[in-house]
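2024-03-11 09:14:02 DEBUG pipeline.ingest accepted 1 chain
2024-03-11 09:14:02 DEBUG pipeline.ingest length=236
2024-03-11 09:14:03 DEBUG pipeline.predict start
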Amino acid sequence: MTNNTPTLQILSTIAVRKVLEVIVPEFEIWHGAKVEVSWGATLEQRDRILAGARADAAIITADAIDELEGKGILTPDARADLVASDISIAARPGEPVPDVSTVESFKAALLQCRAVAYSQRGASGVYFAGLLERLGIAEQVNARAVVVPQGLTGPRLLTREADLAVQQTSELMQAEGINIFAKLPADVQQMTVFSIGTFKDAPQRKLAEYFIAFLLSPLGADTFRANGLAPVGPRQ
């Protein structure tokens, strides 16, 4: 690539990191462009944008995209809902796993384990913290929980800081060598939609549109599925 190569700047949640590691090189070849991605937890990216950070596009939760569109930071006519993500539970490989098939057994597993790891600023962690409150076990669980400021929770299993890790399925899949053994019980499962939005004054607006189309292509859909994310259709 030459010094005149257009560069697409993206602020993204780590939930789609493995996907973009596949998609970005293909996109760069097809469009003769360079893509630079700045990674972070969903709330971190939202706060950065509200504080003035700008790029060409942002991949965060649909709710955060809606908020930023409402504030005139992102443009409503250049966004796409990409995938729905659920939350899973992981343990160290080769070790017995608890029954988490019902809400009651899940509560018991959380109370009996030495420590559970969850994220502080990711969409799954924010939801999980609220779930602990609703289940009435927040004080007991948080007294020994490993709350990860940002990033992956799975590695905290391998360092033996925690016995269980809770996070978006796609994020747990990024931690090699762990056992993703179950999803949250259906009655307390949370599906999060991740979307891409274009900044109102994006320097590379047209390139961002091409990138969105690339993510929505069959290659994008297949890559999302391979990494624990379910592609969603366009809004009605």
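2024-03-11 09:14:41 DEBUG pipeline.report The chain has two domains: 7-84+192-231, 87-188.
2024-03-11 09:14:41 DEBUG pipeline.predict end
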